[in-house]
Amino acid sequence: MTKSAPAGRILFSVNAAWNVINFRSGLIERLLADGYEITVATPRDAWSQRIEDMGCRYVELPMQAQGRSPAADLGILARYVRLMRAERFDAFLGFTAKPNIYGSLAAALCGVPAINNIAGLGLVFNERGATSRIIRLLYRLALSRSAHVFFQNSEDLALFGRERLVELAKTELLPGSGVDLDRFRPGMPALPAQPNNPPHPDRFVFLLVARLLWEKGVAELVAAGRTVRARYPSAEIRLLGFVEENREAFVQLADLEEWQREGAATYLGTASDVRPHLERADCVVLPTYYPEGTPRALLEAAAMGKPIITCDMPGCRDVVVDRENGFLVPPRNAGTLAERMTEVMRLSPEERAAMGRRSREIAETRFDERIVTGRYAQVLRHLIGPNRGSS
256: which DSSP letter? Predict the structure, then answer.
């Protein structure tokens, strides 16, 4: 039996394989089901094999996600060009800064239509030096030839339009990366007892799920937790996420060990499935001041019906309606954060449950993953054509 031609051949690139598995697997599953052949290009990490397990072809494409060396970045561009010239791709899908910039520049050089997803701006957009100006110029050049550019929050879209980094006519706002409402739902089974995560029904658990970057507000959460625990010893701060040793941007294991000895926070390590940890939490907290898109951790918490405390920042305030499904707090303000954490603890179980139900309603009406995957499918059909694989 002759195998039918694919609906299209897509090059899909992100700055880390773990990002693909954790944030983009739903989109990939939809596109594979639609008959597309997908090649994923990322740096190699512990998650790379799982990309092939999904049914994609994996290509290693080295890049330093946080590096700022012009010579190294030109090397990234050259790798993309070689890959695109060696194969005939019908579309390039870029996520995160360097794939969006250098992958899209390569796509323009090779005549491959590019679709971009701007999922947060990164710290460089908070700067006003030469590096920030160069990044803005590169975005303008890269996106000038893109076919379609998705944004995850209205503030980022407005900034790119205001600074003329993209033509607004080819932009569109998506509800973050969306969330699988069937997979993330209230009432998931809790984790079995573990040495670092024992069940304590008498404790009130505040959970942070994130890469443990300082800019995610980890220090502010620990400081606020100390204040709360001084009045309510049953409060417990739990941190779930990976760290990178010897990188200034990340909390270090020595910090986590010290907090644990002090009783200020419990470090849970990493998890391939965050749902049982979310189920055990009474409130999810993300006091980030990092320039987010729409944090996936908040979408998952909302889908699982949790009260949420987060900062009044772009993307975050799209998920939390203050005093309806949680609280918005000023960034880098441990004092106000402690007040809102205390307020959540003082709510009756019925009031917290009502907040959780409102979170689920927000997830269902605004952040269903099928909205995101459906729009990608529509744009690709328009870009590639419905009859490409039938000839």
Answer: H
